[in-house]
Specification:
The complex is a heterodimer of chains A (293) and B (262).
Chain A lengths: L2 H4 L10 H16 L5 E2 L13 H10 L5 E6 L6 H14 L2 E2 L8 E5 L12 E5 L13 H9 L4 H14 L10 E3 L3 E3 L9 H4 L5 E6 L4 E5 L5 E3 L26 E5 L6 E5 L2 H10 L6 H5 L1
Helix pairs in contact in A: 2-3
Chain B lengths: L10 E10 L2 E11 L4 E5 L6 H8 L7 E7 L5 E3 L5 H10 L1 E4 L3 H4 L6 H11 L5 H14 L16 H13 L5 E5 L7 H18 L2 E5 L3 H7 L2 E6 L2 E7 H6 L4 H8 L5
Parallel strand pairs in B: 3-8, 3-9, 6-7, 7-8
Antiparallel strand pairs in B: 1-2, 1-4, 4-5, 9-10
Helix pairs in contact in B: 4-5, 4-6, 5-6
Classes of the chains: A alpha/beta (293), B alpha/beta (262).
Chain lengths: 293, 262
């Protein structure tokens, strides 16, 4: 028997229908209470915890045969995690896949939001390692739940205060805490804080799945997402001195790529799709990397 | 004693009892505390002092009895009938709690400044400069050098930690403080300075306080009035000087005569 025939014993999108219903209920509750962490009965997935089991379960629960899936890992479509998860859904759900942000209906992401603006009808699924923004400040789950319930978020500012006291500025650069719709403080998963403003009033639905921690939370379309800060130390995103070395983009998030062991390096777009589409649009543009040779 | 213009008490305790199964934690405790008054609760270990303190400070649900507190707006509220959100707000704004072990009342991993600033941030202060200025001011008032502002309390001595804990509690200008053996575990010279500081702050801010201690000298120095506990019951209450100089109950007489004379 071929590998595909064996898969006939699997349900569509790997999870059984009961599990999907359970996850959908959690998602609906999460959408109804933006930023609130809804517990769910996370399943064993054919991948280790920490590799996106939460995101995969959320995707499996919302995906349909007509969906077009894009998976990114640190912004890239071609890294191990992204390739494996994309192949997984190609196999178990036989859905169309793409690397184009605009063509996708579901984008599963690990730690980036695509540079191209998302549109209404798209779903962004985040893989979340630690959903509790207060975890490293208050280790007791009973206490952090109470703090969310009573909206006691002074402690979150204690952390930002410590940052300023130690470094002179807010040194948190990723997993930067946000307040959703003026109520719940939420960890936007370890995306760089560069992406925080993109979450604000986004027309796309944003779903967060944490498999090991068994939590799902959501930001519905057009929801206020504000990064926490101090009046005299306002929230700021990272800025880069040079444009992308490949496509020349400015105002995008860049990755540092080490070229050799003599200190050679270049900064390129972390969002590979964005970079490739820009280069495809201007094929004549000489890239600095090519000029080096 | 500073002038007390208020016509009503701040705290009313009526018939407070707490049982641990069949064992008595404290039984039938009733008293009133007036604004600006310092009440000492003394007694030997196991006499129910800590149970009473926890019962009063909304940390331990009593088996029976009531604790009522007069809020800033003058309304009487029963502490155990409030919603948890209100109670916790009260505990971090109008109340303070000084633990015997400073590690229980401080965040040991964040700087002294953040420790003092936490309550301010919890009630909505969002200006870093103001928080820092207030924290610096408070460190000065509890005699901690300003250059220790960014040090973690782990790097502090026992006496400094205790003073930091006091500053952390007083920063929201509470009207009422609980203190559980505030000088316990400190050597005598440090104790003396801490007591001096506490006395100054209590008088200056018009604080009401309940101080639990087994040290009668601490009670004599700090308190206006005194409650003597034995086996979970109040055996004697009265002005501190009266109780210590002319004890009525046999147990109090024993307690007073047990003080070592140096």
């Amino acid at each position: 028997m071929s590998a595909t025939a064996n898969l006939a014993t699997y349900n569509f999108a790997y999870l059984d229908e009961q599990t999907k219903r359970m996850i959908r209920r959690a998602i609906l509750k999460a959408i109804a209470v933006p930023g609130y962490q809804v517990p769910f009965a996370s399943r064993e997935m054919p991948m280790p915890y920490g590799w996106g089991t939460g995101g995969v379960q959320v995707t499996a629960a919302v995906i349909g045969p007509d969906d077009v899936l894009k998976v990114i890992d640190q912004g890239a479509d071609d890294t191990t995690n992204a390739v494996s998860i994309r192949a997984f859904f190609q196999k178990v759900a036989r859905v169309a896949v793409t690397t184009r942000t605009a063509e996708a209906t579901i984008i599963q992401t690990r730690h980036r939001i695509p540079e191209a603006p998302l549109a209404a009808g798209q779903v962004l699924v985040y893989q979340v390692p630690i959903p509790e923004p207060l975890r490293f400040l208050e280790p007791r789950e009973t206490e952090t739940r109470k703090m969310h319930a009573l909206e006691e978020y002074g402690l979150m500012h204690v952390k930002l205060y410590e940052d300023i006291a130690r470094h002179g500025h807010i040194a948190t650069t990723y997993a930067y805490p946000v307040k959703v719709e003026g109520r719940y403080v939420m960890d936007p998963s370890p995306t760089p804080k560069f992406d925080n403003p993109k979450m604000h009033m986004s027309p796309a639905l944003q779903l967060f799945g944490a498999g090991r921690e068994k939590r799902i939370y959501a930001v519905p379309p057009f929801t206020r997402v504000e990064s926490l800060d101090f009046e005299d130390h306002p929230f700021e995103i990272q800025r880069f001195d040079a444009p992308c070395a490949l496509c020349g983009s400015t105002g995008v998030y860049l990755d540092e790529v080490i070229l050799d062991d003599r200190g050679g390096r270049m900064f390129v777009c972390s969002d590979t799709d964005h970079c490739e589409s820009r280069r495809a649009a201007e094929p004549a543009a000489q890239t600095p990397a090519e000029t080096l040779r | 004693m500073s002038e007390v213009t208020d016509e009503e008490p701040l705290l009313r305790v009526h018939g407070l009892s707490k049982f641990y199964g069949n064992r008595v934690g404290c039984q039938d405790v009733s008293f009133e505390l007036w604004p600006g008054e310092v009440l000492a609760v003394v007694g030997e270990s196991g006499s129910g002092k800590t149970t009473l303190l926890n019962g009063l400070s909304a940390r331990l649900m009593p088996t029976s009895g009531s604790v009522s507190y007069r809020m800033r707006d003058g309304a009487w509220r029963e502490v155990y009938r409030m919603s948890e959100a209100e109670r916790r707000l009260l505990m971090r704004t109008d109340w303070g709690f000084v633990h015997q072990n400073p590690a229980d009342g401080l965040r040991m991993t964040v700087s002294a400044g953040a420790n003092v600033g936490e309550r301010l941030m919890a009630v909505g202060e969002r200006h870093y400069g103001n928080i820092r200025a207030t924290a610096t001011d408070w460190l000065g008032r509890v005699e901690i050098a300003a250059d220790r502002l960014d040090d973690a309390p782990r790097a502090f001595s026992g006496g400094m930690r205790q003073r930091l804990q006091i500053a952390r509690n007083l920063v929201t200008a509470p009207r009422f403080m609980f203190m559980d053996e505030p000088t316990g575990g400190l050597d005598v010279s440090v104790q003396a300075r801490l007591l001096d500081l506490l006395r100054g702050l209590v008088r200056e801010m018009g604080l009401a306080a309940i101080v639990v201690t087994h040290d009668l000298a601490v009670a004599r120095l700090l308190s206006d009035r005194m409650v003597v506990m034995k086996d979970g019951r109040m055996v004697e209450t009265g002005l501190t000087d009266r109780v210590l100089d002319d004890p009525h109950a046999p147990y109090t007489q024993l307690l007073v005569s047990s003080i070592l004379q140096v």
